[in-house]
Structures are given as C-alpha cells and as structure tokens.
Amino acid sequence: MAALTFCAWLATCAPALGQGTGVNDGFTTTRPGVRIHYLQAGSTTEAPALILIPGWRMPAWLWREQLQRFSSVTRVLAVDPRSQGESSNTADDNTPETRASDLHDALETLGVTRYVLVGWSQGAQDVAAYVQQFGMDAVAGIVFVDSPVSAGSAEVVIRSQFAQAILSQIAVYGAHPKEFTEGMVRSLFLKPHPELDLQAVVRSALRTPTNTGIAMLVTDIFGVDRRPVLSTINKPTLVIASAASPLLGAQRDMASAVPGAKFIVVEGAGHAVFIDQPQQFDEALNAFLRALARHR
User: Is 2 contained in some domain?
Assistant: First the structure.
C-alpha cells in the first residue's frame, strides 16, 4: 500500500544502472500504446523469473540490490509502472487493474512465461489485481511486501485511522508536492542510507504528475475490495512485513487468508524493508525461491 510509503552508481539516474552492474534497461509497449520501462538482470533459466514491482510513485531502480543478488539464479525484472519512473505518464487509467494489464502485456512481449510476482506497497495492489484478471496459471509464487491488499471503500470503516491519515494528506500533497514527497521519501526508512541519493528518489517520484499521483493513491486504497482474490491464490505465497508497520495486523490477517502463506516480520526496518534490511529480505526471498524449486 502507498507509503504514507545504494552504491555510487545509483546516485545519478536510472539509465546509469547498466554501466558495469550487469543490469540493463529497456522499454516495451503495451496494447494501449503505453511505454513501460524495465530493468533486467540475469538470464532465462528453468527457474521462474522474478518480477519486482515498486510502490507508489517509486522507481524500479530501488530494487537494485535484488536485481543484482538474484540475477545469478534467474532472470530478474524490475518494472516502472505507468506514470512512474521512466514509463509513460498517462492522464487516465492509473489504477492497479490497468497497471496489472500493462504488466501482463509487458511480460508477454518480453517472453516471460513463468514468474514470481513481488509487489511492494502499491505493488501489492497490482499483484492482487493481476491475479484477479489473469489467474494463477503462469504465476509460480507471490510475495507481498509490507502492505495488505485493499478493502476498497470499507477501509474507512475497518481501518479508520489509516484511512483518515491518507485522506488528510491528499490536500497537503496537492498543495506542496515537493515538500510532501521529500517527507514521504524520508519516512520510508528507519535506518540512514548515506549511499542512497534521496534527492534522486524524490526527483523520480515527482515525475508522476500530482493529479495523477492523487488518482493513483485513491484508487489504490479505496477503489476496489481486493481481499476476495486472496482465497483464490493457489501457489506458494510469502508476506514480508516491517515490524514497524502500522498495518502489521492487517498483513497478518492477509497471510491467514491465503492458503498456506508464510508470514515473516522483519525487525529494524521501515516501509522499504528490502532497503533497510536487505540481508534479511534477501534471505527470506531466497528461501522462498529455493522452496519453489524443490516443488516444481
């Protein structure tokens, strides 16, 4: 859910990622003509590809650790959803459902036929929307990172404090997007990251037009009740949550709703669990992938 949610080579801009890192970038075009930017590392193997989806307005290159770490075992792609990062900005259709359709088109074009979907924050909504639209046939596993799937309009009742916090910040974001975004980016982390250029993250987030960002936030959290899809997930599922998450209980409940899902709580991490505690995150994800390999 939205975040209200790295080496010197990251300090400039996303295209520099490919220089000496084993990470390449490219673009693919969806059926509606939207250009989707992606970062890619590793090569096709018998193992399912690892698909990394970032949070609200965040760029794909925040997954730089996982792109490099897991490229030795499989093909890894991190995607900039529409209206984020280097992908096309669109005035309409900035919803998890449309982003899921974009992802499906992108994977088809790139020849990715079997994959593990990893959705962080807003990306968790995109994963749920993907399963709702396209089912589980090509999905080998699912990883939700520090976000429960949305209850739609029921959020204002069942998680009223959270809903009020989100709604109260929309006007602040609309009136002061830069200041709001700077504060939001700082709030992602519990630990200092001198190697991470926070202003580069802010600049990337500000590529999303403010009106689009508001629309994304509202449809992400309040647009659709995506909880019913959880019981239909019939592939291994991992929920990785920050111990500091205000929605920790909701994430635990989500894991309980998915048959056989594993729930892991990471201490000492903010919302960006995979950056604050990359070793713990990578170990959990690696164990999950190894378990998938044993049950193929």
Answer: no
Q: Is 135 left (phi over 0), alpha (psi -120 to 50) or beta?
A: left
Q: How far is residue 296's CA from residue 283's CA, in Å, rounded to a whole number?
A: 20
Say how many domains are in the chain: 1
Coil, helix or strand at residue 232: helix
Which residue type occupies 74?
A: T
Question: 80 is in which domain, residue-wise?
Answer: 8-294
DSSP H or E segment with residue 50: strand 49-53
Q: Cα angle at 81 between 282 and 155, to 5 degrees?
A: 85
Neighbours of 253 (CB within 10 A): 15
- Is the pTM here over 0.90, yes or no? yes
| CATH (domain of 12) | 3.40.50.1820
Query: Tens digit of pLDDT for each residue in 218-260?
Result: 999 999 999 999 999 999 999 999 999 999 999 999 999 999 9
180 domain residue, yes or no: yes
Structure tokens at 72: 């030795």
Strands 262-266, 237-242: parallel, antiparallel or unpaired by DSSP?
parallel
What does each C-alpha distance from 49 to 147, 172, 253 come to in angstroms?
Answer: 22, 39, 28
In which region does residue 186 sit, left (phi positive, over 0), alpha (psi from -120 to 50) or beta (all else)? alpha
Residue 130 near residue 141, CB atoms below 8 Å: no
Query: Residues, the chain, total?
Result: 296
Q: How far is CA 5 from the centre of its chain?
A: 11
Whether residue 85 lies inside any domain: the answer is yes
CB 150 within 8 A of CB 176: no
Domain membership of residue 134 (yes or no) is yes
- pLDDT digits 0-9 by tens, 54-72: 999 999 999 999 999 999 9
Q: How far is CA 208 from CA 87, 89, 218, in A?
A: 10, 7, 15
The HSE-up count of residue 51 (CA atoms within 13 Å, CB side) is: 29
